[in-house]
Design a protein that fits this description.
By secondary structure, this protein is of the alpha/beta class. It has helices at residues 16-20, 108-114, 121-126, 149-157, 167-187, 189-192, 197-211, 223-234, 250-254, 266-270, 272-288, 302-318, 326-336, 343-355, 378-388, 398-409, 411-420, 459-468, 490-502, and strands at residues 31-32, 51-52, 59-67, 77-85, 95-100, 127-132, 216-221, 239-245, 433-434, 446-453, 472-480, 511-512. The strands form two sheets. Strands 2-3-4-6-5-7-8-10-11-12 form a ten-stranded mixed β-sheet, with helices on both faces. The protein has a two-stranded parallel ribbon with strand order 1-9. It is globular and about 60 Å long.
C-alpha cells in the first residue's frame, strides 16, 4: 500500500469508471464458506525451537513448518520465520500476543523488533510478543521472482517511480508488471495460489497452538486488520482478545464477495484516496499555520501553503528535479504522511528543497533488525493482494480509472489507481479465499481502532469494520497518521492495555488524541531514524 499528492478535495461522481472496465474479467477460485468450508484434515502444531536471533540480543527466532495447502496436509510444506520478545514482567506473564504489521507483505520478523518500543509498557510486561513473516514474504518461504539482486534492481529501474505520467510511462509501467507476473508464474506457480489471507489465518492458528495458548491474543494493523477479521470468522471460538488498528473494510477487500467484474480497484473501493486527500489537506493547513522553524514548507497561511504545494506538483510534472519526478514526489509524500514524528517535518524539508530547485536528502534508513534483512520485493505483497482481492483485469482501463479518480481526489486518485494496476496482469488467484460472512459471534469482543486522518486506511473503514463484525467496539483516535501504534497516544495505549490484560473495552463512543500534535516542536537537526513500520514505504 501507498499514498499520494496535491489534493484539491474534489469529490464529484466519476461516471466514466463504469464504462472504463466493461471488458474486465474476473479470476475465480474456490471460497472457504462461513464454517471454513469442508473441514480441513487435522494438522499437528509445528515445533518452535527458539534460539537467540543474534547473540546478546533479546529477540528469539524459530522456524515453523506448515502445509502449503491445508486441504492436502501431507503434501508440500513451507517454512514460516518467527520472532519473539519474552514478557518483561517476571512472574506476571499472561500469554502470547501475536502481531501482524500489515502490508500485505510486511515482514514481522523485521518490523516487530523495529517497533517493539511502541507497544504499551503494560503489554510488553505481561505478554510474549510474537510476529512472523507471513507465507510468501521475507525470511519465510517467499515469493521471489528474480535470480539475483542485480536482476531485481534492473526490473525496478524499468518502471517509473511512484506512478506513471504520460503515455510512454504508462506503457513502461504496464509492461514491467506484466513481466513481473510472467517471471513469478515461471518460478513457483503453486506457491502463488497459496498465499491468501485465509491461508495465513490458518498459519496463525497453527502458531497459536505451537505456543500453547488455548485462545488467540492478537494485534494487527492495516492489512493485519483484515487478517484479524478473517481469523475471527474462521475461528470465532478461539478469540481471547483482538485489537485491529487502521482497518480495511472487508467488503471493500472482497468486492462484496461478488463474482462480477469489479468496477473499481481495491484502494478506490476502500476510499484510500479520500483518506489521503483529507490528511494531506491537514498537513498543508497545519504547516501553513506555523512558522518555517517548525515546518520548512510553510508559506505563511494554510491557503498559501496549499497553493504552493499545487504549484510544486505542476512544476514537477513538467520539469522533474533530477530523479525527483512528479510521480516519485507524490509517492514520497504518501509514505511520509504515515508517521507524524518526525515524518511530517522531514517531508516538509524535502518539499522545500524541491521548491528551491534542490534534490532533497533521503531520509535515513531504519535501524537494522536482529534477523537477516530479507528481500521484500513488490511481488511479495502483490502476490497476496492480487490473488485475494479482485481488481479490474484490463490494463488499458486504468488510465480512464486514473482520470476519474483524479476528478474525485486529485493526485491521490491517480496514485491509488495505479497502486492496484499490477493486479491486472497477475497470473494467479488464491485457491482458498475467505469472502465472508463477517459477523460470526466471537468468544470475546474485538477492539477496532480508527484514526480520523489516516492516509492509507480511512476512518470510514474502521467504522465499517466495527459494523461488520458481530461483536466489536470502535475506539476513535482523533489524530493523524497510519495507526495509533506508530503515532503514540497514551489514551489509546491505556485502553488497549486494559483490554488485552483483562478484556475491559473502552466506553461506547470513546475518543482519544495523540500525545504530540504535528509540528509541535522546532525542526530537528541531524539525522533521525524514523524506524520501520507496517506502512513505512511499502504496499500494505
Amino acid at each position: 500500500m501507498h499514498i499520494p499528492g496535491s489534493i484539491a478535495g474534489r469529490r464529484r461522481c466519476a461516471a466514466a469508471i463504469a464504462v472504463a472496465v466493461t471488458c474486465s474479467t474476473v479470476l475465480t477460485g474456490s471460497d472457504i464458506a462461513a464454517t471454513g468450508g469442508a473441514p480441513s484434515p487435522s494438522v499437528a502444531a509445528p515445533q518452535l525451537d527458539w534460539r537467540p536471533c543474534v547473540q546478546g540480543r533479546q529477540f528469539d527466532c524459530a522456524t515453523a513448518k506448515v502445509p502449503l495447502d491445508y486441504r492436502n496436509p501431507g503434501g508440500r510444506t513451507i517454512e514460516l520465520a518467527v520472532v519473539k520478545r519474552k514478557a518483561t514482567g517476571p512472574g506476571r506473564r499472561i500469554g502470547t500476543l501475536f502481531f501482524n504489521p500489515g502490508g500485505p507483505g510486511g515482514p514481522g520478523t523485521v518490523q516487530m523488533p523495529q517497533n517493539y518500543e511502541f507497544f504499551p509498557r503494560e503489554v510488553r510486561e505481561r505478554f510474549d510478543i510474537v510476529s512472523w513473516d507471513p507465507r510468501g514474504v521475507g525470511n519465510s518461504t517467499a515469493v521471489n521472482c528474480f535470480d539475483s539482486p542485480t536482476e531485481a534492481d534492473a526490473w525496478i529501474s524499468s518502471k517509473p517511480a511512484g506512478f506513471p505520467v504520460g503515455e510512454q510511462e504508462r506503457a513502461s509501467w504496464i509492461a514491467a508488471y506484466k513481466d513481473l507476473g510472467r517471471r513469478c508464474q515461471q518460478r513457483d506457480p503453486e506457491l502463488l495460489r497459496h498465499v491468501s489471507t485465509a491461508d495465513t489465518a490458518r498459519d496463525l492458528d497453527q502458531l497459536r497452538q505451537a505456543v500453547g495458548d488455548p485462545q488467540l491474543t492478537y494485534f494487527g494493523i492495516s492489512y493485519g486488520s483484515y487478517l484479524g477479521a478473517t481469523y475471527a470468522n474462521l475461528y470465532p471460538g478461539k478469540v481471547r482478545a483482538m485489537t485491529i488498528d487502521s482497518n480495511i473494510d472487508p467488503q471493500a477487500w472482497t468486492n462484496h464477495a461478488s463474482n462480477d467484474a469489479p468496477r473499481l480497484p481495491i484502494f478506490l473501493r476502500m476510499g484510500a484516496d479520500l483518506g489521503l486527500a483529507g490528511i494531506l489537506d491537514q498537513f498543508l493547513a497545519l504547516c501553513g499555520s506555523t512558522t518555517t522553524a517548525r515546518c520548512a514548507f510553510s508559506a505563511g497561511s494554510p491557503k498559501a501553503t496549499r497553493d504552493k504545494f499545487d504549484q510544486l506538483m505542476q512544476r514537477l510534472r513538467e520539469h522533474p528535479q533530477g530523479a525527483w519526478t512528479y510521480g516519485r514526489t507524490v509517492g514520497d509524500t504518501v509514505s511520509s504522511l504515515n508517521v507524524v514524528h518526525p515524518g511530517w517535518t522531514l517531508l516538509a524539508d524535502r518539499l522545500q528543497a524541491l521548491w528551491q530547485g534542490r534534490a532533497p536528502e533521503q531520509a535515513p534508513p531504519p535501524p537494522a533488525p536482529p534477523v537477516p534483512n530479507p528481500y521484500t520485493g513488490d511481488e511479495q505483497g502483490g502476490a497476496v493482494l492480487c490473488s485475494d482481492s479482485p481488481n479490474p483485469r484490463d490494463p488499458g482501463a486504468y488510465h480512464a480509472l486514473e482520470e476519474a479518480g483524479a476528478t474525485r481526489t486529485g493526485d491521490a486518485g491517480r496514485f491509488w489507481t495505479w497502486a492496484a494496476e499490477p493486479c491486472a496482469t497477475w497470473p494467479a488467484v488464491a485457491a482458498n479465499r475467505y469472502r465472508g460472512p463477517w459477523n460470526r459471534p466471537t468468544a470475546h469482543p474485538v477492539l477496532v481502532v480508527g484514526t480520523v486522518y489516516d492516509p492509507a486506511t480511512p476512518y470510514r473503514d474502521a467504522q465499517a469494520m466495527a459494523k461488520e463484525l458481530a461483536n466489536a467496539r470502535l475506539l476513535t483516535n482523533n489524530g493523524y497518521g497510519h495507526s495509533a501504534l506508530l503515532n503514540p497516544s497514551s489514551c489509546v495505549n491505556a485502553y488497549e492495555s486494559r483490554y488485552f490484560i483483562d478484556g475491559t473495552l473502552p466506553p461506547v463512543g470513546a475518543t482519544c488524541r495523540p500525545d504530540a500534535p504535528p509540528f509541535s516542536a522546532p525542526r530537528p537537526r541531524g539525522g533521525i531514524a524514523t524506524g520501520g513500520g507496517a506502512m513505512a514505504g511499502t504496499a500494505s
